[in-house]
Specification:
mainly alpha; two-stranded parallel sheet
């Protein structure tokens, strides 16, 4: 006798779980950087973004959700049961994930990012999101068993999605360990990345608090936040030939985050459904607090204008559309099976029309969070550029550089820096937990 699969006790638990998965660190540090990387053009970037959301994001989102609800199994077994002739789809899916990412990594001068982003959200993101959600609910299995049931020859799609999720989990848990360490340091009487009076600082360290002239001549200087990140947290060695030492503090934080993740899901959907009430809502409170604080800082409007002013001529550049597509697939979690798994815990007879409305709300929440995070980040970067007397392009960072160097450095310049630092890293940790 097959054991009956558990279900979400309330619809809101499913909605919050999916919201926590699709609204994460990518919205906070990747989306604003892509806008900056593309010339700071949030206005022009919206067109391709919305196009891809409608044509790719929402369809894939709905597809995976429906598959999961139908199969009632995980991602690997789900694909084994779907369509025997669909195995070749994994190649196209891999191209969708890998090719735009390589274009993003290789970079270049890309403008008008938000315009294609919003266009692709409407034409790709939302439809795909809805399709995956519907398939998950229909199959009532995870992505592997779902495809095994619906299309046995396509079971490899489920395994491929699980492999992507494994790599993502390994990456995010390390980011969470760094964030936890920064959170602990945030309770210090003086933020350690705010001064150059520490044992890890070099003679070229500048904090920006005592001497502002050095910021205009930074040839041989390093910010205190950068030295804290590279020398105190990571202890970067001189080269690949040097093994370096174990960072015991980071290791302890890594173990702590794995334990926290375990207890968030150890009872399956029952514990996860309760945890998401906290982890999926509190980050928005923190983001709102940081947004309000950022917009009230001197120089914030310079950062906001840099974020909003468009360069419409860049819409003809295909690089813009590829980057927008990469952001949508990444942030909507389509194609990796996570939507199928979450939707598989919905009741089989759950109203699909309500599912569409919920999915549209989640997709709108994802886009809104990205936009709000952009305002929060660029207002603070504008403040930091104003304080240092340098262009915003000189203080903007991507990925870990934004979360662990640029933003902490800006926080150190604010009144009550410990408070804002705690708020920021709690938000990062909760977003990362939801993504995990």
């Amino acid at each position: 006798k097959v054991e009956e699969r558990g279900h979400w006790s309330k619809t809101i638990e499913f909605i919050l779980a999916v919201a926590g998965a699709i609204v994460g660190l990518g919205n906070v540090w990747r989306f604003p950087y892509l806008c900056y990387k593309n010339g700071g053009d949030v206005g022009a970037f919206l067109v391709p973004y919305l196009v891809l959301v409608v044509t790719c994001g929402i369809p894939l989102f709905l597809l995976e959700s429906a598959v999961g609800q139908y199969a009632q199994e995980g991602s690997i077994t789900c694909w084994r049961k779907l369509c025997p002739i669909a195995e070749g789809a994994i190649v196209c899916l891999g191209n969708v994930w890998r090719f735009p990412y390589l274009c993003y990594k290789n970079g270049g001068d890309v403008g008008a990012f938000l315009v294609p982003y919003l266009v692709l959200v409407v034409t790709c993101g939302i439809p795909l999101f809805l399709l995956e959600s519907a398939v998950g609910q229909y199959a009532q299995e995870g992505s592997i068993t779902c495809w095994r049931k619906l299309c046995p020859i396509a079971e490899g799609i489920g395994y491929g999605g699980v492999l992507i999720l494994i790599y993502s989990c390994i990456t995010y848990i390390v980011i969470l360990s760094w964030s936890l360490l920064y959170l602990v340091f945030s309770f210090s009487s003086q933020l350690p990345w705010a001064t150059c009076n520490n044992y890890w600082n070099s003679e070229f360290c500048f904090s920006g608090q005592n001497d502002t002239s050095a910021w205009s001549n930074k040839t041989n200087t390093t910010s205190a936040a950068t030295e804290f990140w590279e020398q105190r947290v990571l202890a970067i060695s001189g080269g690949i030939e040097e093994i370096g030492s174990v960072r015991w503090e980071v290791l302890l934080c890594l173990m702590a985050m794995w334990v926290i993740c375990y207890f968030c899901i150890w009872k399956g959907v029952k514990s996860t459904g309760k945890v998401v009430y906290f982890t999926a809502t509190l980050p928005y409170v923190m983001l709102l607090v940081l947004l309000i604080r950022g917009l009230t800082l001197p120089g914030a409007m310079e950062g906001v204008l840099y974020y909003l002013l468009p360069e419409v001529s860049q819409l003809a550049d295909p690089q813009v559309w590829m980057e927008a597509a990469a952001q949508i697939f990444f942030s909507y979690s389509v194609g990796v099976g996570s939507l199928i798994v979450r939707s598989s815990y919905n009741n089989y007879n759950y109203n699909c029309y309500k599912q569409v409305l919920s999915s549209l709300w989640l997709c709108a929440l994802n886009c809104g969070t990205s936009l709000a995070a952009g305002f929060a980040v660029f207002s603070v970067l504008g403040f930091m550029a104003h304080e240092q007397g340098v262009p915003i392009s000189d203080v903007a960072e991507s990925g870990p550089g934004l979360a662990f160097i640029a933003y902490p450095q800006a926080i150190a310049m604010m009144p009550l820096p410990q408070l804002w630092s705690v708020c920021f890293f709690i938000m990062i940790i909760l977003l990362g937990l939801d993504t995990q």
